[in-house]
Amino acid sequence: MNTLTKVPVQKTDVLLPIRIVEIELGQPLPTLSAVCQSSGTAYQRARCLVRLHDQPLGIVDITFDKDELTAQDYIPLLWQSLKESIVAHMQQDGRPPISRLDPEGIVSFTTPRCQEEREAFCATAPFVSVIVSTHNRPEALNTCLSSLLAQYYPRYEVIIVDNAPSNNATAELVQCSYGHVEQFHYVREERPGLSIGLNRGVAEARGEILAFTDDDVQVDSYWLLELVRAFSRADDVVCVTSLILPLELETPAQILFEEYGGFSKGFQRRVYDMREHHPREPLYPYTAGRFGTGAGMACRPAFLRGLGGFDPALQCGMDITTFFQAIRGGHTLVYEPAALVYHAHRRTYAELRRQIYQYGVGLTAYLTKNMLERPQLLGELLMKIPYGLYFTLSTQSPKNRKKSLHYPRELTLLELKGMLLGPFAYIYRKWQHAAREQEYARL
Question: Are the C-beta atoms of residues 16 and 44 closer than 8 Å to each other?
Fold first, then answer.
């Protein structure tokens, strides 16, 4: 991630709201205001996603030293931070390199090659099923569905799984607001659990590719197209993940989650396998969180169904389990930053505490699942424990180096507590799920 600030931010200001902004370099660059007209919120900082021809290039953080920043004010920051990415994109488009940015943007009098390639792909794009499992969050779901309706993709369906609802609010939303949309399909699943909801969606799906997202996101209009295109980036690709950025950074909890690590894995496409495409690091591929997240992923149906779907004994970590099984099973995973998703981070500290704890549980639960199913991996994992302790506990490790001095120690301890309880939680939930299935079978 490329980050550059114009004025150093004081330590006391680090948890103040940050304005989220998009800047498209292919058109005149906007004036950035420190005040949001709709909410009246005054910001000291802006986090700018910079794009060229709709392709995400990187993030630039800007500090407001006055009420408005003209393009001329912040162009030097953009150029200094993203020059290499801009030049590389121009070269890929077959355009002559540029030596500077202008307020008028990068003018193109013909269709850029990247856009021509998108159009060509659409002509033969496979039919895709997008699966959203939701539980009692109709307002968030409405935002998600609106963005799915706006996809620049020719052939797809959206399967909305209403997972163990306590009322008819989700069903009424889908019927009233999207009942006329042919590609939207509503399914009610009475058995609770995210994995169960996702598996129901998989069972209903007809697509050649299965895409998954959450009910608390907004997907970019090119998300599905770029996600599916990535399956052709390497051989034997069975899973693709997205670039996921915060939809807002309005509360301290949301900013702390970004310090924890957030969801973004950077702006460089990466290919992962167990052959030649993998980082030379001790914990690969067990640190499966580096590959992406389930809020924006896609899988080949045969691969996913071959795994038996998502494990209902995992309440968190279903996605990283899938990533690990893809790579450890000899297949290929692609991280595709051109497939963009905006995620609504938890707004309150109480919600953040629960989230971080569940991530700790999910990590060791997923490891426990794989050790139980593939005992031959146990020796390999035991050899990785010393570095794993450093990776988890050291403030200098790749996992923790984004955390500032004000990051609450309580959150770190909660994550560790979750990691300690994860194996027991997985075994208990596996037993619990088996008992419930027997009960459902008798009904």
Answer: yes
CA distance 141 to 217: 8
Cα separation, 200 vs 322, whole angstroms: 17
209 contacts 130 by C-beta, under 8 angstroms: no
The first and second tokens of residue 299, run together, are 């899988």
Average pLDDT, the chain: 93
In the numeric block, which tokens belong to residue 272?
């992962």
Structure tokens at 304: 């996913």
Name the token pair of 341: 């998703």
308-333 in b/e form (b: 16+ CB < 10 A) is ebbbbbbbbbbbbbbbbbbbbeebbb
d(CA 127, CA 301): 12
| Tokens at 297, concatenated | 């992923």
DSSP state of 35: B
CB 43 within 8 A of CB 50: no
109: number of CA atoms within 13 Å, CB side?
Answer: 0
Closest C-alpha to 239, from 262, 272, 286? 272
275: Cβ contacts below 8 Å, ≥ 6 apart: none
Look up tokens 């895409």; give the residue.
Answer: 211
- The first and second tokens of residue 137, run together, are 């969050």
Query: How high is the pLDDT of residue 13?
Result: 62
Using 50, 70 and 90 to split pLDDT, how confident is the model at 10? Answer: very low
Backbone dihedral angles phi then psi of residue 417, each to the nearest 5 degrees: -60, -45
CA 328 to chain centre: 21
Phi-psi region for residue 53, left (φ > 0), alpha (ψ -120 to 50) or beta? left
User: In whole angstroms, what is the distance from residue 67 CA to residue 361 CA?
Assistant: 44
Mean pLDDT of 385-389: 87
Q: For residue 372, what pLDDT is reported?
A: 94
pLDDT in tens, 350-382: 999 999 999 999 999 999 999 999 999 889 888
In the DSSP assignment, the letter for residue 168 is S
Task: Identify the three-state secondary structure at position 43.
Answer: coil
Nearest 10 degrees: Cα torsion 287, 291, 296, 300: -110
Q: 327 is written with which tokens?
A: 């790579």
